[in-house]
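Regression test attached.
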Amino acid sequence: MAEQFDLVVIGSGPGGYVCAIRAAQLGLKVAVVEKRSSFGGTCLNIGCIPSKALLHVSERFAEAAHGFAAMGICGCKPKIDVAAMQAYKDKVVEANTRGIAFLFKKNKIASFIGTGRIVEAGRVQVMPSDGAPVELEAQAIVIATGSDSAALPFLEVDEKTILSSTGALALGTVPKSLVVIGAGVIGLELGSVWRRLGAEVTVIEYLDRILPGMDGEIAKVLHRELKKQGMAFHLGTKVTQAKTTQRSVTLSVEPAGGGKGQTIKAQKALVAIGRVPYTQGLGLADIGLETDERGRIPVDESFETKIAGIYAIGDVIAGPMLAHKAEEEGVAVAEILGGLPGEVNHDIIPAVVYTTPEAASVGKTEEELKAAGVDHVVGKFNFMANGRAKAMNETAGLVKILADAKTDRVLGAHILGPMAGEMIHEIAVLMEFGGSAEDLARTCHAHPTLSEAVREAALAVAGRAIHS
Amino acid sequence: MAIEIRVPALGESVTEATIGQWFKKPGDAVSADEPLVELETDKVTIEVPAPASGKLTEIAAKTGETVEVGALLGKMEEGPACAPGSQEGKAEREAVTARETEPAAEPSQAKAAPAAPPPAAGHPAPAGKTHPALSPAVRRLVAEKNVDVSQIAGSGKGGRILKEDVLAHIARQAAAPRAQPIQAVPARAPVPPEDAAREERVKMSRLRLTIARRLKEAQNTAAMLTTFNEVDMSEVMSLRAAYKDLFIKKHGVKLGFMSFFIRAVTHALKEIPAVNAEIDGEEIVYKNYYHIGVAVGTEKGLVVPVVREADSLSLAEIEKAIADFAARARAGKLKLEEMQGGTFTITNGGIYGSLMSTPILNLPQSGILGMHKIMQRAMVMPDGSIQARPMMYLALTYDHRIVDGKEAVTFLVRVKEFLEDPKRLILDL
């Protein structure tokens, strides 16, 4: 007899596990299906969490190696024990994934390890790697199967010489040289990790700028900073061919618009050109659920697919592929299933790039406002002029606030600098309440903090920053 | 506990109203939902109900005053018979929604459809609660410009007042004394005192001001001219005479002339689409639907309720719709949406005795048909004899920017042809 649930969530990444927990809080009987032996999906196992651990280690290493002496901390010639670093990372990951398991137990959420296949609306079959399939019955099914790295047709990932982000996170030694294909968030973050630990890193990007979609000015400043850290860039360049051996990879590249080519050789290559929705094994074709031209499952504004009772959230549907976006959608669906209104404000979703300096943004970029013809005012403030940043010896970067020219409502904010990913939230909250730049400027900010730069940028919108 | 009574959302693009009659005075007992005061807007008059049972304590806006959406009308005290007092805001919203207003997107209550939209602009501050904390920028503006916050409806989350709401309010206050609905008119020539003493001044009602403005707008925008024709109404009249009893017996409504005219008009509109179209920027919008406005005179002025899908209604259905509109128009109980969306209008000056006239277009429509008095006139028949026939002059005022002379004339000819030979209805000619 199949076990009966109110909700079966397929996938235990940030979208799935949050959806499950919220639904359980609202009194639903929930089961989660996960094909990995640990919970947390890409984010916890081979994405957000492990990369943040390595970024943290490598940042401390770089600071110790290059920054301490100027502050009077002498004799620092640190060496990196990659095995120990990976052990540290693995501990962090395990603590997080076990945390999810604990939360599932606490909320009485049943879990099933295996690949989930939707037999029909209301029925999910779990196929474990060994053992018999288990049948689950559910009033509602949420597909939260996330995404996978996108591949280059001519460059097969073997996770030895040609790496995806998964392999790049698990390297056992610092490569002598690493070529990163794609100057998006993942490519730059992982490129940073190994650059700081001593690898020669070259980044190849098809567009003529890094971080497409990010505010252009912020991307330009970050590009400069990364170059100062020793990363080499080939922008406006496409990879046409690759020759791989056991020890190295040689890429043939040429300008994106065509022209004279050259070759770039490195010990390893990281393919970081993006991610694609993952729906394998779900049996979507058999139940008549088509995916669109980008592999995404179409849903309506309640996240329901065209089959009643089957929902989808996170990387597997349209929208920014961000863990917290998936979490918001997970909560919304759980609330809808629990009989409450559920919605996601897709206009106020912060995004963070965990390089040094860190970049964070929320709302519109200057380019988007210009393209939409929205009259706006820009207020900027450099961390160079912020007391705390100077004391911390981390003065690269700026805060940029975009406000409506007529109403002063904050339409977007972009921060490049220390703790950008934390500071952005003050502005996100303001935007949720329809606040104006003046509201921000007239809120007392403690001194000396990095957040004063946010306040000064808000003052700059009105042309009256005090400290610049 | 004191509850504030505020001007509710009045409908799309309607931002102000004039206070009409107060039905209660301070000290009177009121029950929840009982009408307290009348508000006159450009298009309709609505009643504002009491949000709870109790006693009216204060009238803040007097008869004749102009108020904006969200403005304070008065205050009341909740009485012993408690309405859902703890949810005054909700009760007021629900009570007002039930009235004849077209609500702006109201925030959904719990259990409503998912993806509830954020509170729309013009949502009045929750009655009975103190204003949610004012943000720093708002406090500053209020202090700097001496703004009365209670006059401002907050468009932010939960009804919060945003900086932009205050800025908009200030702009409106500055513009208000100067803005006149009618174009600036040269100052009136001085009147000798003995005549001035015999003058009586009456403030133009909101409706009259709107009518005046719209008439001028039509004249200033369209290239209006009127073409005439005449109709021998004898066929229609004999048809009515022959079947009037049977009609009223079967359909429960009198067979008038209007249904024939509306049928004739929709028939002709299908043949001459330009008369059913409108100009939008540099495009002509041809409408493949036929919503015919029927002008109804009331004490307060002319209103034009719209008979929707007139081409698909039977004659009886048309008569019923018109009778209902006329009754409700005179009682001032037409809904805003019933007067929107028309594609063509018919006006009848004949009921007052007019023989011929040149109606003014009901913008953004491109045609209006004027019906007139049916008068026996001596007409020359095809065989040369002279007979008395019941004739009506028909006028079609049209927008020459998109309706050609040929089209306008043909339109009227078709209407005439159909009315003079109603059998064409059966044959779809």
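Expected vs. actual: identical. Residues 6 and 139 of chain A are 5 Å apart (CA to CA).
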